[in-house]
Amino acid sequence: MEVPFVDLSRLPAERDQAVRDAVLRVLEHRRFILGDEVDAFESAMASRLDCAHVIGTSSGTDALVVALMAFGVGPGDRVLTTPFSFFATAGAIARVGATPVFGDIEPDTFHLDLSRLDDIDRANLRAAIPVHLFGDVMDLDPLRTWAGAEVRILEDAAQAINGVDTKGRFAGTIGDAGAFSFFPTKNLGACGDAGMVVTRDAAIAATIRCLRAHGQTARYRHAEIGGNFRLDALQAAGLAASLSWLDGMTESRRANAGEYLGRIEAAGLLDGRLVPPRWHDRHTYHQFVVRIPERRDAVAEGLSARGIGCSVYYPVPFHLQPCFADVAQGAGAFPAAERACEEVLALPIFPGLTAEEQDAVVAGLADLL
Ligand SMILES: Cc1ncc(COP(=O)(O)O)c(C=O)c1O
């Protein structure tokens, strides 16, 4: 049996229809830039996340960039982050002219290891970007205590919409600002690129709104140099229409994760051949990422040869990317991150994945391991 890695056609048909209707309304009124749909999406998100300010952006990457700009981060500043995430996390830091500073990760959660913050040199450190990787929401209290008032916290919540921390706070609303992505395969997906920044800080929100439209304060008057970081009305309309399905889609991912764990255990794979992610009901399971300590690439190739989708997130840590060669320490600097890159494998987890497909994935793994 073939199993796709992601299949967007399995999203609820009623949700698809609601998105089509909403997009059609924009095509008919033709007010494509900002406007009512963007305002409505932002207020729906603000009340959903119980966070005062939501600013729609052109992508998750731009959400990170514009939030760092609003924090005043720029050349000469350093920003702490994980070496193990999607490229945009570190790329955004370099894009504003600052220097990324990396710390190693916790092997069991893949998160930045907050127990080792005292190893970080705080000289010119202006911000930190913790990442709620794969949808597993971090406990940011130790980072907040260490950061104090001088180091701003920007949560990269691109993969964690609807996830909550142990205190019940939504991912993205815990730090000084949170950045989200609505890339089509995200848990809340647009029909193209889209993102948002959320913040409880009115001043940061006002700066981001201004920077989002070229720093314009009045027509053709520019207080600052921003960019075009605007969310499209078409995307906002589709996203707002999808919102009522977000809880159900998140539950479906959690249920799939629980089912996988049962099957993996039943197949006897928990003897060290495979290490599953932790299970808790605050996780959004944007990805279901297992570790295969031996021969991960051969297992991935074997699954693909059987028609079973899987993917490696991420194969190269930031400190070993050629573009960061002059700022990073090189091989061996962050062993836990380097090991994760060699061992991780993401399995299909999308809403609509069937029990038979899960059986096929686990049977394939059992066979290959
Ligand atoms: C952790 C993380 N950060 C940032 C981004 C960037 O989001 P986008 O692709 O919407 O620019 C993504 C999305 O792929 C991501 O997974």
Instruction: Please give the order of strands in the largest beta sheet.
Output: 1-7-6-5-4-2-3
Question: Can you tell me the CATH class of the largest domain?
Answer: Alpha Beta
Number of strands: 11
Largest sheet: 7 strands, mixed
**CATH topology (fold) name of the largest domain:** Aspartate Aminotransferase, domain 2
Number of helices: 11
Uncertain regions: pLDDT < 50 for 5+ in a row?
none
Work out the oligomeric state of the chains in this entry.
single chain
Q: Please state the average pLDDT score.
A: 97
Helix content: 25-40%
Distance between the termini: 19 Å
Count of separate structural domains: 2
Strand content: 5-15%
Task: Kindly provide the radius of gyration, computed on alpha-carbon positions and rounded to a whole number of angstroms.
Answer: 21 Å
Write the CATH architecture name of the largest domain: 3-Layer(aba) Sandwich
Concise structural overview:
The protein is α/β, with parallel strands linked by helices. The protein is 36% helix and 12% strand.
Description:
It is a single chain. By secondary structure, the chain is of the alpha/beta class. It folds into 2 domains: 8-245, Type I PLP-dependent aspartate aminotransferase-like (Major domain) (Aspartate Aminotransferase, domain 2, 3-Layer(aba) Sandwich), CATH 3.40.640; 246-368, Aspartate Aminotransferase, domain 1, CATH 3.90.1150. It is built from 11 helices and 11 strands. It has helices at 13-29, 36-49, 60-71, 88-95, 141-147, 202-212, 233-242, 246-266, 296-305, 335-343, 355-368, and strands spanning 53-57, 78-81, 99-102, 125-129, 152-156, 177-181, 195-199, 216-218, 221-222, 288-291, 344-347. A 7-stranded mixed β-sheet has the order 1-7-6-5-4-2-3, sandwiched between helices. The chain has a two-stranded antiparallel sheet with strand order 8-9. A hairpin with a 2-residue loop joins β8 and β9. α3 crosses α4, α3 (60-71) crosses α6 (202-212) and α8 packs parallel to α11 (355-368). The longest helix has 21 residues, at 246-266. The chain starts with 12 loop residues before the first helix and ends with a helix.
